[in-house]
Design goal:
Radius of gyration: 18 Å
Order of helices and strands: EEEEEEEEEEEHEEEEEEEHEEEHE
Structural class: mainly beta
Largest sheet: 6 strands, antiparallel
Number of domains: 1
Distance between the termini: 22 Å
Bound molecules: beta-D-mannopyranose
Shape: globular
Length: 336
C-alpha cells in the first residue's frame, strides 16, 4: 500500500518550544551528532543516555565515521540538560565496533540499558544493568540481526519482558522488519517470542516498524510508541548522503497488560511525522523521528523524547488521556 507523500503529526502532541533540547554544542568532548537517546526520571531527576557520533568531514558526502559512544546528561525539568564531562560508555574491540541507540528502563531501583551493538558479525541487541552509569554489567547480547530492544519496567507473569526488532533480510528478500515480544526468567535467556506489530498493520509504514521508547503502564494497557518507516526510492538527496529514501515517523499503540504481545489499540495515523525545521533539514538524515524515551508525569503529561534527523535530541508532550484516545481498539493483530 502506498504511504501518502505528506504526513502530519497528531494535533494532540506539541513539540517543545526549546527544541532541540540537546545538540552537539552542549557536549564538552568531541561530538558531531547527539540523538536517539534513552531518557528516564528517577527520584525526581531526569537522566538521559544519548548516542554521540563523531565524524570527520561532517556535512559532506565524504563524511567518515570515527567513533560512537554513549553520553550522559542530567536535568531538573527534562528540558534543560547538563552533559557530564566524559562519555559514560564506549565499547570498542576488534569484534564490537560500537554501541548506540540506548533505551533506559528503571526496574526495582536499577537502571537497565538496551542498546544496539554493531559487530564484525552483524548487529546485535545488548542489555546491561548499572547503578551509577559508570560500571555496566552486560546481561545478554542477542544473535544477529536484532536491535531496538526495550525492556518493560516490571515483570509480567513473573518474567522480564521486552520488545525487539529482528531483521530477517535473507528470508524476506528485502527490508521488511516488524516488532516482536520476548520474555526471560533472568534477563539473560530470552524466548517465548511473539509477533506484536507487522508493517502491514501500520498505514504509514511500508518498510519497517519497531519498538521505540520503553512502554508505560496505564490502567487501560501498556502505552508505547513505535517507529515506522516508509521508503520511496524516488527520494534523492536529503542530508549528508547522496540519497536518503526513507522517512521515519513515530506511532502509538496500546498493548494488553498481561499479554503484551497483543495490540489492543493502535492509532492509524502518525503521532509525530517530520515537519519541524530541525526534523526536515540540516541533518545527517532528514525526515527521521526516532523516539527512545517516554515519561508519564503525575500530572498526566507525557514527555516523548526523540532523535531528529539523526542529528539532535528533541522532546514533545501530550496528555496521556489524549494518547490513549488515539489508540483505536483492534483485535488479534499479531495472532499466530
Ligand atoms: C536506523 C538506526 C537508527 C537511525 C535510523 C535512521 O536503522 O540506525 O539509529 O536513527 O536508522 O537513520
Amino acid at each position: 500500500m502506498a504511504v501518502p507523500s505528506v504526513l502530519h503529526s497528531s494535533p494532540v502532541i506539541q513539540r517543545h518550544p526549546q527544541n532541540p533540547v540537546l545538540t552537539q554544542a552542549a557536549v564538552p568532548y568531541r561530538s558531531s551528532l547527539v540523538y536517539n537517546a534513552g531518557v528516564t526520571k528517577y527520584q525526581g531527576r531526569y537522566i538521559m543516555v544519548f548516542r554521540n557520533d563523531i565524524f570527520d568531514g561532517e556535512g559532506t558526502e565524504e563524511f567518515k565515521h570515527v567513533e560512537s559512544n554513549l553520553g550522559l546528561a542530567f536535568s531538573k525539568d527534562g528540558i534543560a540538560w547538563t552533559v557530564e564531562p566524559k562519555p559514560c560508555w564506549r565499547w570498542r574491540t576488534q569484534e564490537i565496533h560500537r554501541i548506540y541507540d540506548p533505551r533506559i528502563t528503571v526496574l526495582d531501583g536499577r537502571f537497565y540499558l538496551c542498546f544496539a551493538v554493531d559487530t564484525a558479525h552483524g548487529v546485535r541487541g545488548g542489555m546491561a544493568v548499572t547503578d551509577d552509569f559508570d560500571k555496566f554489567e552486560v546481561l545478554s547480547i542477542s544473535v544477529p540481526d536484532n536491535r531496538n530492544m526495550v525492556l518493560f519496567p516490571e515483570k509480567i507473569g513473573g518474567k522480564y519482558a521486552r520488545l525487539e526488532r529482528p531483521f530477517p533480510v535473507y528470508s524476506r528478500g528485502r527490508d521488511r522488519f516488524d516488532a516482536w515480544f520476548s520474555d526471560s526468567p533472568d534477563l539473560r535467556y530470552w524466548g517465548n517470542s511473539h509477533l506484536v506489530l507487522g508493517v502491514e498493520h501500520v498505514p504509514f509504514a511500508n518498510d519497517k516498524v519497531g519498538p521505540a521508547a520503553p512502554p508505560v503502564r496505564t490502567a487501560k494497557g501498556w502505552l508505547t510508541t513505535f517507529h515506522a518507516v516508509d521508503r520511496d526510492d524516488s527520494r534523492g538527496k536529503n542530508g549528508w548522503e547522496k540519497k536518503w529514501a526513507k522517512r521515519y515517523t513515530a506511532g502509538i499503540m496500546l498493548l494488553d497488560l498481561n499479554e503484551p504481545w497483543k495490540v489492543i489499540g493502535l492509532c492509524p495515523d502518525p503521532l509525530l511525522a517530520p515537519e519541524a525545521s530541525y526534523e526536515v533539514a540540516g541533518g545527517l538524515r532528514n525526515h527521521v523521528i526516532f523516539p527512545g524515551g517516554m515519561i508519564l508525569e503525575d500530572s498526566g503529561e507525557v514527555k516523548i523524547y526523540y532523535g531528529a534527523a539523526d542529528t539532535v535530541e528533541c522532546v514533545a508532550t501530550a496528555h496521556v488521556d489524549d494518547l490513549l484516545a488515539l489508540c483505536r481498539p483492534v483485535s488479534a493483530l499479531g495472532a499466530e
